[in-house]
Write a structure and sequence with these properties.
The protein has 108 residues and is an all-beta fold. The protein is 0% helix and 59% strand.
């Protein structure tokens, strides 16, 4: 894989539940690695879903990066203020890259 297309710096975060004072828990997002992930964010596709008589806009993207074993579905990647949630992690057969199928997060 060439390093040229991997020009986008993405912050990788994972969910963590913290207890609050009333005994409940809130979900916070913690950075997964000290440095950023260099990746290629391929052009997002837009679509509109009709769910329960409500239109829900979803933007999906394919993010290509070098393989890592610590990224899982449900984690988030942020690039220049746009946050994507990882829906699936797909490594290739040669273990030279991984594809992250993502959906956008409207209000992170």
């Amino acid at each position: 894989m060439r390093a040229g297309p991997l020009r986008h710096r993405c912050l990788v975060t994972f969910p963590h539940r913290e207890r609050n004072a009333s005994g409940g828990a809130i979900q916070v997002w913690i950075p997964a690695m000290p440095d950023h992930l260099w990746a290629e964010v391929r052009s997002p596709n837009g679509r509109v879903n009709a769910v329960a008589e409500k239109l829900d806009a979803v933007v999906t993207a394919e993010i290509i990066a070098r393989p890592r074993s610590d990224i899982a579905a449900g984690w988030r990647l942020t690039k220049r203020g746009i946050t994507y949630q990882v829906e699936a992690v797909l490594p290739d057969n040669d273990q030279t890259l991984m594809r992250l199928l993502c959906s956008s997060v409207p209000n992170p």
